[in-house]
Amino acid sequence: MGRAVSGIVNYHGKVLLGKKRSDSPKFLAGKWHIPGETVEGEESDEAALMRGMKEEVGLEIKVRRYICSSISPSGSKNVNWYECFSSSDKINPSSDLEDAKWVLKKEIFNYLDYDVINLWPEKILGYFSN
Known about the structure:
This protein is α+β, with helices and mostly antiparallel strands. The chain has 3 helices and 7 strands.
């Protein structure tokens, strides 16, 4: 089974959301979600998150802590979830994102489809419910 990482990137009470390109063949096509990245080769989870956020939105992040794991929608990857922080709110969507934005942590459920939220493990739901 492959490995992927999702990073809940925080900045002054807001969380980063990415909108997957509509022409993507992936499940999240055209949907807002917590950005993530596939781990390549012997790369660490932290290195994959830092690389992915740089590629997808141009952000330098700090990975603070591991939260939990889940299985990808396709069932082909183990996804490790991390809490991350950015020292900047300047984002430039690219790579496989057509848009990105910062939303208040307490309002995140207003921006996501039920299909996306339904994939989240209990600990991630709890992270946003506090």
